Amino acid sequence: MQQTPPTPLLRDRIDPRRWADVVRVPASSPLRTAVARAVITRALRSLPLRVQMGDQVLGRGGPLLRVHDPEAFTARLAADGLIGFGESYQAGEWDAPDLPGALTVMAEQLTTLVPPSLQRLRRLWERRQPSGANGEAASRENIRAHYDLSNELFRLFLDDSLSYSSAVFGQLPARWEQLEQAQHAKIDRLLDLAGVGPGSRVLEIGTGWGELCIRAARRGATVLSLTLSTEQLELARDRVRAAGCADAVEIRLQDYRRLDPVRDGRFDAVVSVEMVEAVGVEFWPVYFRTLDAMLAPDGRVALQAITMPHDRLLATRRTYTWIHKYIFPGGMLPSNEAVDEVTRTRTSLRVRSSEGFGAHYAETLRLWRERFTAHAERVAELGFDEAFRRMWTLYLAYSEAGFRSGYLDVRQILLTREDRA
Predict the structure, then answer these.
(1) Is residue 409 a contact partner of residue 312, using CB atoms and an 8 Å limit?
(2) In which region does residue 173 sit, left (phi positive, over 0), alpha (psi from -120 to 50) or beta (all else)?
């Protein structure tokens, strides 16, 4: 089979000051490299993929994955596991014509790719989350690292509602023209779940770009919304003013841990869309106690949250991943069991309903990814180089694969007081 042009040369064009670990191919001990090569070869042979590794073709058929530089690819996985896998893609050392398709196959086989004997040894070499990754100062930096990249960047691939979370479509597969309406459907379902109507006092933790504030205000509610992103703050305020809702909405640059029920009052509804994932495992009790403290006695909490299987949460809750390093520092997805346990043991809140719609997130991510790649030239004009563009393409495809495989889900969760069943 004829090789594609030598894309590994991409790493030679990348700014080493910005992307030091992408440019540098790590050294590894001969033993570790040999073990990695054996594990990688064994795993790839068993997968329903076609993996072209130099002159060798592995796999049982399926989506194509081309490894242009097998030595660098193996060295990165040997030294840094899945972090190395992602950096290898950023460096142009491997590609896949159907990237989400290839990653979906891997996600479906995630727990069996590595032999159990080696999985038990993982703690000896895998990176661990840094301590203090979700304190107040660190949380501000974590949010800014992602959400303050550029409002114009997000405008390129989001719909006009600027909603950066899963939509709920009327039917699947989805089309781009349906996305804004589907985002409104998602918001309206969450507001209905929280019982938001005329006269409601609403607390939103995680403003985004303000669309939920606007839709809640148009129902006759008043809203206090918190964000840690300065870029989102200014644009959300502008959008709220343009919508004629400024008298009903207050947006603050404030950490949720600084809320005070005496100063701020209590709220009929507390809503939060895909925010708990940024809180960090050690602060889940603080987050849910804050929701509890700020909720009026007969109020309702409505959350939208990305979840993962509980056994995988237990196995990976301290692991430092490519997503942490490059996309969402400090992040951790909860499981259904984790949400239930932390609310039951640390608060007076109880889970009353939880509805999943992961297939809708897969479609949302597909539409974003297609839009992002279609605007590659404009992304470059905004100052984002090819390593960044490949990083974000991988992030969107990787996330899409998680939902397509069923490894990830997204849920709208209703919480009420224990005595308000």
Answers:
(1) no
(2) beta
The pTM score is 0.93
Residue the block writes with tokens 């839009």: 371
Poorest-confidence range of 57-71, 100-114, 154-168? 100-114
What is the rounded CA–CA span in Å between residue 235 and residue 209?
Answer: 6
What is residue 219's three-state secondary structure?
coil
Tell whether the torsion through CA atoms of 31, 34, 36 and 39 is positive or negative: negative
* DSSP strand pairing (295-307 vs 267-273): parallel
Tokens of 54: 């130099």
> How large a percentage of the chain has pLDDT more than 90?
82
Q: What is d(CA 209, CA 213) in angstroms, rounded to the nearest whole number? A: 9
Burial classification of residue 121, based on how many CB atoms lie within 10 Å of its CB (0-12 exposed, 13-18 middle, 19 or more buried): exposed
Q: Would you report the helix, strand and coil content of the chain in percent, each value rounded to 5?
A: 50, 15, 35
Beta bridge partners of 319: 128
Distances from the Cα of 102 to the Cα of 48, 63, 350, 407, angstroms: 9, 5, 39, 15
Condensed to tens digits (0 to 9), the pLDDT of residues 25-41 reads 998 778 877 888 888 88
Distance, CA of 298 to CA of 304 (rounded, Å): 20
- DSSP, res 319: B
- The predicted structure's pLDDT at residue 271: 98
Rounded to whole angstroms, the Cα distance separating 300 from 292 reads: 10
d(CA 97, CA 110): 21
